[in-house]
Specification:
The complex is a heterodimer. Chain A is an all-alpha fold. Chain A contains 14 helices and two strands; from the N terminus they run H-H-H-H-E-E-H-H-H-H-H-H-H-H-H-H. Chain A has one domain. Chain A is globular and about 65 Å long. Among the domains of chain B are: 2-46; 63-249, Penicillin-binding protein 2a (Domain 2); 322-484 and 494-519 and 546-563, Beta-lactamase (3-Layer(aba) Sandwich). In chain B, helix 11 (253-263) packs antiparallel against helix 23. Chain B is elongated, with a radius of gyration of 37 Å. Mean pLDDT of chain B is 86; it is low at 1-7, 553-557 and 621-632. Classes of the chains: A mainly alpha, B alpha+beta.
Chain lengths: 371, 632
């Protein structure tokens, strides 16, 4: 028994140490993105090397996670999936219990690192949906759709209660993408979307004051120019004043003089737009488009339903980050705390994103084994 | 059931289905990213100009640089108002953790008055937390030393240098120069806020107030780059402020000092004017106060002391004090008799000691028991014979009388360049109707003839009238400002006086006749009212005394001349004089609130002012032979 375990463990360690078989175009694009992120952060953080250093440290940690996860076969990952899902959901419950009566509470302090269990859910959620749909006949039936709905709703509701509406929507979205990619019929999609729209007034009823405020401010930012509207106005000024070619690296006055709030985290895209202009923004968006396209291509090449749905959902979630953040800083969407992937300063997000790409790399590495 | 489903699970078909979905999804993603690019295009290209302007408005601010206040000099360049470096305590609120606790501790090191704290808390609300707020102005050496030792205990509190107004001459010029003080809310509403941005003080009284506009100067500005907290990051451009104009007053500090000293603390006022142009040479009001007390906020104790002083030191007696003119108006009335053709210099009246209006029983007395006998104009002025002027006033009638007197400025503001000046009262039919709805009685005309009754003058008004008479009837508006200067090194630019009016005198011989009488007042024989006052003076002085009763007489008895101290309680003493008599260059009016007789009490004060003036003219000053023992 022990010998068997030792044998399996040895195989796992050997595999982890073997030469990584990574998708080089994707890896290259991610590296380029991380470099752009560090450069922008250097400017946005007022040339603070410690800020850039700690972010680079997280990238290194994320890269290690990426390589490690890429060594784990999707099959093994699939067998772990229910446990990981249950674990992350349990952590959400723990946070909810600890955070009782403390207002917004999202963090678990592990002494060495503080991390948000909701970040873990961004990965475990599509895994769970893919796990559930993997053995079932696709397109999914109503019964399966309903079951998936429950799987999505429980963690999403816990996150929304923290309260963190933005992350809750992202987590729910990542599960929903898996469902979409599983081939659920358009009619049913339309029906469900209709239900969601109909449920919006109910959601409004359950929203926290600051969440409602954000939505209201989004509709008319100038109505509250010193409060929440300030973010949107200053962000639009930053982007708009950048023009076609931008003000140049570290010449963005909006961020340097601190008119732009959160300019190293959620609003770093505005700094980028201010300093590198429309040209820079197009290049960056193209880079994101490439990463998403490449990820979807990897998903299409995947060997089984679980891998396909999981990688596809990760790729599409990645897009949601970009569009929600980009929409927010340009005033298209309300202010929700969604970071720009691999550019915004922030530990958990960078590491969890790169871990997600580790899953993609794993799927890529194991694509031909069954064929 | 699960078995059957697993059996029909078609991986190939599912892969195809996924492929279609993935392509669809990617198409939607590209569409979304294109919308985002479109949004960037909209903001960065189509609305770029607007946002570029708003970004610049965020970044660049103007910061006012308050100008240095202009200095004030006397006519010889003696400094009357200066800007001197001083030290104050400033607090940067954001660096103080517990403001009230800190203030309490600080109070034990540097005493803070209730006013300091009140001002501080008011300003605290108007400043941003990183801007320093003055807590206590004008620290003493001792306070600076004590704070320096304890400084480590008070983070966010600092000793800061600044320029403060200082009046080197102190109380001697208090009423003329005035003082500046902290701008209050009401004053702030009356000025251009941009021009006063950063300015802490404003002229409150005197010249400081009247010429505030000239003295203030124009603020400069700095174009600075600020961050979102409005903290200055860089200075982009500096446009220095233009200091206020320096003012040269026509006052001669030496005359002013001599006049102030001559009062020896007795309440009263004196004004000296150059009759040729209306320039004020001296203007004192006694008692006075130290204007320096007001600059950085006067303490309640000091202020109470000034308010409770029975002699009201804050009152500018020279410009707004109200006094009966008494006999000082007789030369003007005598001149009126000649100019209106009612008298010739040779016409006489017989002074018997009492004058009666024909048909009335009430008698109007002369000062001398038994009267002065046959009296012409010269004697009437020299000996101040009441009966001559009773009769003359009656012959003129009140309407011609007040019309004539108005030409010398009686009953009107003199128009001097000071914020406050009185207009006095010139008795007239209209004036009385406005006041009491009563008709005019001839008896009131009679007593107006000796400067009694309703008649009220200010010392400045009397000096102005005298100066007008002295310059052969040409009225010059009294002026304090003589020249201005744009900077310490710039040229001094004379200020042209307001145009002089037309002479009120038609016949120069009339003027000479009146002046002859006034010369006799000072230089004449027995019976003249200021006999001996001109002794030892290098020029011929022409003058006139005035003694007005402070209270109405209760007895018909003639005044006992011997008890001067008792008389001083009852009389106001006035004296007016100009010199040289033939071509006057200075005219002085003196009012002593408690003086026994015009000649003996107010006269010497005028003489001392004239002596100081004579000394300025480069002539020997002969005061060793003080005039004594003068007849009333």
């Amino acid at each position: 028994m022990i010998a068997a375990y030792r044998h399996r463990l040895g195989r796992l360690v050997r595999r982890l140490w073997s030469r990584p078989r990574l998708d080089l175009p994707l890896l290259g694009a991610l590296t380029a993105l991380a470099m752009v992120g560090l450069a922008t952060l250097y400017s946005a953080g007022d040339e603070s090397l410690s800020l850039v250093g700690s972010q680079a440290g997280r990238f290194v940690l994320g890269a290690i996670m990426l390589v490690l996860v890429s060594r784990i076969s999707p099959t093994l990952l699939r067998t772990w999936t229910p446990w990981l899902y249950a674990f992350s959901t349990a952590l959400l419950v723990v946070v909810a219990v600890i955070g009782e009566g403390k207002g917004a509470y999202r963090w678990l302090d592990l002494g060495v690192v503080r991390f948000q269990p909701s970040e873990l859910c961004k990965l475990t959620m599509p895994m769970m949906v893919a796990w559930y749909l993997h053995p079932r006949q696709l397109p999914p039936r109503w019964k399966d759709i309903f079951a998936v709905g429950i799987l999505i709703a429980v963690p999403a509701a816990l996150i929304a209660e923290q309260p963190d509406l933005g992350t809750a929507l992202l987590v729910a979205g990542s599960g929903a993408f898996a469902l979409f990619l599983s081939g659920m019929s358009w009619r049913r999609i339309a029906l469900l979307l209709g239900l969601v729209v109909a449920a919006l007034p109910v959601a409004w009823h359950f929203m926290h004051g600051y969440q409602r405020q954000r939505v209201m401010t989004f509709i008319n930012p100038e109505s509250d120019p010193l409060g929440t509207g300030w973010h949107i106005i200053q962000s639009k000024i930053a982007v708009g004043s950048g023009g076609i070619f931008g003000k140049g690296w570290h010449h963005g006055t909006q961020s340097r003089l601190e008119f732009l709030p959160e300019h190293t985290t959620d609003f770093i895209f505005a700094v980028f737009g201010e300093e590198f202009g429309l040209v820079g923004a197009i290049v960056l968006i193209a880079l994101y488009a490439f990463i998403i396209g490449r990820s979807l291509w990897i998903a299409m090449e995947a060997r089984d339903t679980y891998s396909r749905l999981l990688t596809g959902a990760i790729a599409m979630s990645f897009f949601v980050y970009v569009i929600v953040n980009g929409g927010m800083i340009t005033g298209l969407l309300p202010v929700v705390g969604v970071p720009l992937p691999l550019v915004s300063y922030g530990g958990t997000s960078a590491v969890s994103l790169l871990t997600g790409f580790g899953v993609l790399m794993s799927v890529h590495a194991h694509r031909k084994l069954l064929e | 059931m699960p078995l059957r489903r697993r059996a029909i699970k078609d991986n190939r078909r599912e892969a195809h289905l996924f492929r279609v979905r993935a392509y669809t999804g990617f198409a939607l993603i590209l569409l979304g990213l294109l919308v985002l690019v479109g949004r960037f295009f909209y903001l960065q290209v189509m609305r770029h100009d607007e946002y570029a302007v708003r970004s610049e408005q965020n970044r660049v601010h103007l910061r006012r640089l308050p100008p240095a206040r202009g200095l004030i000099y006397d006519r010889n360049g003696t400094l009357l108002a200066d800007n001197v470096p001083a030290f104050r305590l400033d607090v940067i609120p954001e660096r103080v953790k517990h403001m009230e606790r800190m203030l309490k501790r600080l109070d034990t090191v540097v005493p803070l008055s209730a006013d300091d704290l009140k001002d501080f808390h008011r300003q605290l609300k108007q400043h941003r937390s990183f801007q320093s707020v003055p807590l206590k102005l004008h620290l003493t050496e001792d306070e600076i030393d004590r704070f320096a030792v304890n400084r480590w205990r008070f983070p966010g509190v600092d000793v800061v240098p600044y320029l403060t107004r200082h009046y080197p001459m102190g109380d001697i010029f208090a009423h003329v120069v005035g003082y500046v003080g902290r701008i209050n809310q009401r004053e702030l509403q009356q000025v251009n806020p941009e021009r006063y941005d950063g300015t802490t003080h404003i002229g409150k009284t005197g010249i400081e107030k009247y010429y505030e506009n000239k003295l203030h100067g124009e603020p400069g500005y700095q174009v600075v780059e600020v961050n979102a907290d409005q903290r200055v990051q860089r200075i982009l451009e500096t446009h220095p402020p233009t200091p206020g104009e320096n003012l040269y007053l026509s006052i001669d500090a030496n005359l002013q000092k001599a006049a102030y000293k001559a009062f020896a603390g007795r309440a009263g006022a004196a004004v000296a004017i150059d009759p040729r142009n209306g320039q004020v040479l001296a203007m004192v009001s006694v008692p006075t106060y130290d204007p320096n007390l007001f600059v950085n906020g006067i303490s309640q104790t000091d202020y109470d002391a000034l308010l409770n002083n029975p002699h009201h030191p804050l009152l500018d007696r020279a410009a707004v004090g109200r006094y009966p003119p008494g006999s000082t108006v007789k030369p003007f009335i005598g001149l009126g008799g000649l100019e209106l053709g009612l008298r010739t210099p040779q016409d006489t009246v017989n002074s018997t000691g009492v004058f009666y209006i024909p048909g009335q029983s009430r008698g109007y007395r002369d000062d001398q028991r038994g009267g002065a006998g046959i009296t012409d104009l010269r004697k009437a002025i020299a000996q101040s014979v009441n009966t001559y002027f009773y009769k003359l006033a009656l012959d003129m009638g009140i309407d011609r009388f007040s019309h004539w007197m108005a030409r010398f400025g009686f009953g009107q503001e003199p128009g001097i360049d000071l914020p406050r000046q009185g207009e006095g009262v010139l008795p007239s039919r209209e004036w009385k109707r406005g006041q009491t709805h009563q008709p005019w009685y001839p008896g009131e005309t009679v007593i107006a003839g000796i400067g009694q009754g309703y008649w009220v003058i200010t010392p400045l008004q009397l000096a102005h009238a005298l100066a007008t008479l002295a310059d052969k009837g040409v009225p010059h508006t009294p002026r304090l400002l003589m020249a201005t200067q744009d900077g310490v090194d710039a040229k001094v630019k004379p200020v042209s006086p307001p145009p002089a009016g037309a002479s009120v005198i038609k016949n120069p011989a009339d003027w000479q006749a009146v002046v002859n009488g006034m010369i006799d007042v000072v230089n004449g024989g027995p019976g003249t009212t200021a006999r001996g006052l001109g002794k030892g003076f290098p020029y011929v002085i022409a003058g006139k005394t005035g003694t007005a009763e402070r209270y109405s007489r209760k007895t018909k008895a003639y005044t006992n001349h011997s008890d001067l101290a008792a008389l001083a309680k009852l009389h106001r003493a006035l004296f007016e004089a100009f010199t040289p008599a033939e071509n006057p260059r200075i005219a002085v009016a003196v009012v002593l609130e408690e003086g026994a007789w015009g000649g003996s009490s107010a006269g010497p004060i005028a003489r001392k002012i004239l002596d100081a003036w004579a000394k300025e003219q480069g002539l020997p000053d002969d005061t060793s032979d003080e005039p004594k023992d003068m007849a009333p």
